[in-house]
Amino acid sequence: MGEIRLMKGNEAIAEAAIRAGCDAYFGYPITPQSEVLEYLMAEKPHERTGMVVLQAESEVAAINMVYGAACTGKKVMTSSSSPGISLMQEGISYIAGAELPCLIVNVVRGGPGLGTIQPSQADYFQATKGGGHGDYRLIVLAPASVQEMADFVKLAFDLAFKYRNPAMILSDGAIGQMMEKIELFEPVPRTNEFDQSWVTTGKTPDRQRNIITSLNLDPYLQEKHNHHLQEKYARMRREDVRYEAIACEDADYLFVAYGSSARICQKAVQLARKKGIKAGLLRPITLFPFPEKIIADLAHSVKGMLAVEMSAGQMVEDVRLAVNGKIPVEHYGRFGGAVHSPEEVLEALEEKIVKPAV
Amino acid sequence: MNLEDIIREENIVYRRTPLLTDKALSYCPGCGHGTTHRLIMEVIEEMGIQSEVIGIAPVGCSVLAYEFMDIDMVEAAHGRAPAVATGIKRTWPGKFVFTYQGDGDLAAIGTSETIHCCNRGENITIIFINNGIYGMTGGQMAPTTIPGMKSSTSPFGRDVAMMGYPLKITELVAQLPGTYYVSRQSVHTPASVRKAKKAIRKAFENQKLNKGVSFVEIVSNCNSGWKMTPVQANKWLEENMLAFYPPGDLKVDGQLMEQGKTA
């Protein structure tokens, strides 16, 4: 049994980073995730494990510091919230193009623009479809609890290094700020067991120089590089799809929801079943790669699906692509910082999915 | 006398450093980039630190600097090299880390990264090529284009009332407590090349002291962008660029110097 603690989601991210053997964190304060940097500074990880923590002058600088450290094979991360993540998109595109492993945490708040500091899930498109310029994908993990905020730090680093690709934890202001009891994993040493042949730490006589770049002026070589990236993303789809199926076996209707919305839908499933509506919940854990196969399979056994997300309807497009017209798929969600209740979600299921089907 | 009789070890007074690759330079003939590349590689060779050096290339004419330097290198996004260097140096404090940046990169789009890196006192070397123009994109006005100077986006000369003033960023960073050595040099004459090399050497040696940023501006030419022959460009540089950007040390061992004096 690991150490049990009552922690905020943001604090869990920070503690897990130290325990996961993270080498460096570069960040910039923004609500609702500033506790990550605050916790790290207070914990003095430079004394605990030798981990570097630095407050950058902007999110733009922070992500480029991440880029630099990632070039040298270090386990490096940053965290921010929506407007800050928008500023990082240039750097993230370069990191994806140069195929560097790193972790980016987005504790999402309502937008667009400066928006609000309340929780939101409206950055789904940005996280899963690229975000910056060019054809690239991030590995996107969606925690639904403070426990997963901690556990996914380690998982994200493992996946980032497995694929030499940036990974994102797409959380939201609710999970970042709420406190829950969690069990912390045992600390692992700050060593890196992954292939280091590509890193830029100084050209030694036994090897050619290493160059890290996303530039390829020859269009045919750049096309080849893009094919290579696409093959990598296809491998992610084959090997690393993660999801949780709750009460799906006998379900007539399905909620599809991730993160905070999945927690709300879990309650809505209970309320529905009390009313005699056989509802289930499919919770994507990896938003990219998206669990499209299980959703396509479930489309054979349920009558309709309701994608519930704190956005005007983003993930619902991926659910519809997976279902491919077989059954009705609708969207419900409060957004702009507002959070739906289990009752509202159940009412939406009845109105949009259950009633039209009768 | 045969060629073999002449080319003997004792007769060799100059050779190309092996730290420059065999790749032909992509720079225009007469451009200061090639000379500056050579000086940096000579310094790294002479210090024997090839296995300890990581260079950061910018966006601009020298975007492909890593093609010519036989060291580990990273290509940064436009203006972000000082942040990338920070990420490397903070996680590898024992390595030698340098950025190589042009004026648009360092003094326009990357001003924030430049100033904050210098102000934090990152223990790195910054080599700043100032030719007063955007060379790669075809000769547009740069943050360092001097008043009255023509470019493709200031075709009648830089009108400071309309376009603002050139930014003397080297003077600016010299004022910051995080810089330890700030010098302005040029590479347009044999004498200036020798002085520039000394400054670059000092800027790399300083990393052993862990005292902050060592910043070397190289006032350079851009024959193509300036629409001049290499000889004309060097003359114009001496008469105009160096009048506005006087060469010399601005800060040595953390102490500000009197303008134009060399330590």
Quickly describe the structure.
The complex is a heterodimer of chains A (358) and B (263). Chain A is an alpha/beta fold and 358 residues long.
Keywords:
heterodimer, A: 358 residues, Rossmann fold, 2 domains, seven-stranded mixed sheet, 15 strands, B: 263 residues, alpha/beta, eight-stranded mixed sheet, two-stranded antiparallel sheet, 10 strands
Explain what the structure shows.
Chain A has two domains: 3-202 and 228-238, Thiamin diphosphate (ThDP)-binding fold, Pyr/PP domains (Rossmann fold, 3-Layer(aba) Sandwich); 244-357, Rossmann fold. In chain A, helix 1 packs across helix 7. Helix content of chain A is 42%, strand content 20%. Chain A has a seven-stranded mixed β-sheet with strand order 3-2-4-5-7-6-13, sandwiched between helices. Chain A is α/β, with parallel strands linked by helices and 358 residues long. Chain A is built from 13 helices and 15 strands. Chain B is α/β, with parallel strands linked by helices and 263 residues long. Helices cover 37% and strands 18% of the residues of chain B. In chain B, the strands form two sheets. Chain B has an eight-stranded mixed β-sheet, sandwiched between helices. The longest helix of chain B is centred in the first third of the chain and has 16 residues, at 32-47. Chain B has one domain (30-256): Rossmann fold (3-Layer(aba) Sandwich). The N and C termini of chain B lie far apart (47 Å). The chains are: A alpha/beta (358), B alpha/beta (263). Chains A and B meet through helix 4, helix 5 and strand 9 of A and strand 1, strand 2, helix 4 and helix 6 of B.
